[in-house]
Amino acid sequence: MDSLLNSSRPSVFCPGCSHEQVLHALDQALTGMGLSGEEVVIVSDIGCSGLFDTFFNTHAFHGLHGRALTYATGIKMARPDLKVIVTMGDGGLGIGGAHVLSTCRRNIDLTLLVLNNFNYGMTGGQCSSTTPQDALVGSGFLNKLEKPLDICQVAAAAGACYVSRASTYDKGLVEGLKKAIAFDGFSLVDIWGICPGRYTRRNKLTPKSIEADMAKLPDLGDYKTRNARAEYGHAYRQEAAKLQQAAEPVRIEATCTSPEQGRREVVVLGSAGQRIITAGELLCLAGASAGCHAAQKSDYPITVMRGHSVSEIILSDIEIEYTGIENPSVVIALAPEGVSRRKKMLTDLSPEALVIKASGIELPISPASVIEIDFKAEKIKPQDWALVALAVLADQNKVLTMDMLKAALKLRFRKAEYETAISMIENTKVRT
Amino acid sequence: MGLTLMEGNEAIGWGAMAAGCNFFAGYPITPATTIYNTMLRLLPPKGGVCLQGEDEIASIGFCLGAAMSGMKTMTATSGPGISLYSEQISFAIGSEIPIVIVDVQRLGPSTGSATKGADGDIQFLQWGNSGGLPVIVLAPVDVKDCYVLTMQAFNLAERYRCPVFLASNKEVSMTHETIDLDRLDPPQIEERRAADANHPFMPFGVNEEQLTPDFLAIGGRCLVRQTSSTHGMDGYITTDPEQIARMQERLDAKLKKSVSAFIYYDEYRVTGADTLVIAYGVTARAAMTAVKKMQHGNAKASLLILKTLWPVPEEFIREKAAPYKRVVMAEMNLGQYVREIQRLLTGKKIDFIGQMNGELIKPGQIQEVIQNG
User: Fold this and answer.
1) Which residue range(s) make up the domain with A57?
2) Residues 2 through 21 of chain B touching chain A, CB cutoff 8 Å
3) In what order do the strands lie in the sheet with A59-62?
4) A60/B66 touch (CB, cutoff 8 Å), yes or no
5) Which end of chain A is more exposed for a tag (fewer CB within 10 A), N or C?
6) Nearest C-alpha of chain A: how many angstroms from B185?
7) What is the pTM of this model?
8) Residue A90 included in any domain
9) What is the C-alpha R_g of chain B?
10) Domain definitions of chain B by residue range
11) Considering the domain B265-372 in this protein, what is its CATH number?
């Protein structure tokens, strides 16, 4: 095939626009590589470079400003066999900067052509991320204040494996594009060109001056060696192949009998590191092992190993509707951090409620009955207090039985942990 | 057989897998992160793709590219992420890209409270797109809904080629609950309708009766064009007012005319009640407790739980409310969906209970409104 250009939709760039030349260079590169339209996706950004997809007989995806690389990444991950070419201006480079950096870091097999003409052509020649500070553009004095970006240096620093600078007017452009497209990984070509409609009306820029300016840019050094690595998609599939499929969700057999009927609300108040959430989960599992429905909500700050930890559990022989705690039948209070989060609830406890608390924990006055445990005297580590409190609760035959607790431990822990936990609840003779 | 203990977000992940999801991309954000965690655990070992974008815009962008390449995609975030998705959502609506978007709502505005629940995005999800076209929003009540409605969301995204939102809430998504996975009533899995690859392909071509165009994936034998620009059936930019109007009207009608095919709801009817409580999401659970507690007293109320919020199932709501003199709307915001109810039920007395303080609306608060108005 001699051309992938769409003969029924001839290009419509301004006379003298560098995009026109890049369009033909890209066509020659693609056809020169023997690619057919079915094998190629052109993903175009917004602005004049965003017209590229409409001029080609290839698959085409034209989306939002700056986001072309995001679609291209999705397409390439879905269809690794396709050649995905992204066209973007210096505008897209600026607004989509985070995506450019991340694509460099990923090294996914896309080719990004930056059609760099130093201004926003389509909206009236405002400054972009590459506008020289001394240029006269449609943004008044603002471009004087911002340094232009050399995307090649940035890309090399961000981990790109293939970065190249090219002038639209360079005879080697087609070969350069072929090399970039053939590269197995992310390739970026920064293609400088003239925007006659806007930029060169007030600024002098010629093929010659472009060549001279480019020659002054710093060399990119040994980034290729530094950044060399596997293409993202290959590496992704290789890593994924090592993974084991997740086990199906566990179905909990109802092997135990619940000591109570109806809705039972339990609140566990502690601090981070006391395995409060695990205790809540154990209660739910214990409930399920007696065929009860269970719900658990947890409340903890963003910090790990610091701050409060609260778990609210509801067990019920019928489906649970409201998941808030209204009238807890049991409160386990193990640390002041948790207690201070539920002061009002503790004051409103009913006379039927049971509080299991660690010695030294101050609670508001309420009519509930209290069991106090001196964990420290029993030499029980703080991370085990919640589990021991559950065992004390099971001893009372309230909310759960010892059989239910053991069933929960079996569901929750691996063998060694399970055995430690069982010996903990069996051998700890807690004075209450 | 037996119950499974599962978090709402985890159930969304398993539901997505059951629906055939093979591509997920997300950016970590409380309270949606555990959906991403779940997909990362479930998808790659099965040959699917799970990516973490550099931001929310990238995450949904990955999905849109993959969806147009034939994948079944999902992303998940919370209110702040929906804000960043907004432009991409408009794209997916206008360019008919199937995608499931989970919004695990948290208390806003803005970054708000990461670990507090709310239903504050309910109008935002519908109107957060430029152009004002309809979207589908489903709202789960519990962990079971998280599973089944996620499957429905995938089916609807495929059937209508559109974004479908699952409007969850921290209080549903981050609550662990027992679920009987073997007694669910999962829907049949649907796939988007493929165009005949042997005929010239029009990416947005429809015949006179058709509201959703047939699909071909990027990368096949037929060349496929996708564009965010105002386009004709061929996927090229058009400036022809007639073509533009036809496209816009089709996109509007596509969902509004079809809503009767996907009205998900629950109800609890109380004989002799002259009040109907309408609720959705986690608040429906408190409402259920409230109406049950009051069903033998003087002030009785029935309950309608809406799980399809957008497009508003207008006829359905009118019919369901017809036997009642009064409606009580309960929702976890300061009055959003109640606007739709007020618009529909002009002849009825409508009382409202809502709050935005990070706490669940209690059954007692709803009872109070049923009792006293």
Assistant:
1) 18-241
2) 2-6, 14
3) A162-167, A187-192, A111-116, A83-89, A40-44, A59-62, B225-227
4) no
5) N
6) 17
7) 0.98
8) yes
9) 21
10) 1-262, 265-372
11) 3.40.50.920
